[in-house]
Amino acid sequence: MKAQAMREDKPMIADTSKQMQDEMVGVLTAISIVSKRLANRLSQLDENQEERGESEHEQKQTCTGCS
After folding, report:
1. pLDDT by residue for the chain (67 residues), tens digit each?
2. Residue 42 to residues 31, 46, 47, 49, 56, Cα–Cα distance (Å)
3. Among 18, 16, 40, 20, which Cα is nearest to 28's?
4. Taking the model in full, what pTM does it have?
5. How far apart are alpha carbons 28 and 22 in whole angstroms?
6. In Å, what is the CA distance from 50 to each residue of 37, 38, 42, 62?
């Protein structure tokens, strides 16, 4: 009887392990998606700052003889 109970527990353990793996895959996928979005936003921010820096630099150069 004890051996039969152990046989019945193994599929439950395997099923729980499969559920845990599926959950981990979902969490890691979500982390990956968020990381990609953050990387894209940082890249855009960096590009915007470079553009602003260039336009400010151009404005300063054109106005050096203004006064």
Report:
1. 455 555 666 777 778 899 999 999 999 999 999 999 999 999 999 999 888 887 666 666 666 556 5
2. 16, 6, 9, 10, 21
3. 20
4. 0.56
5. 10
6. 20, 18, 12, 18
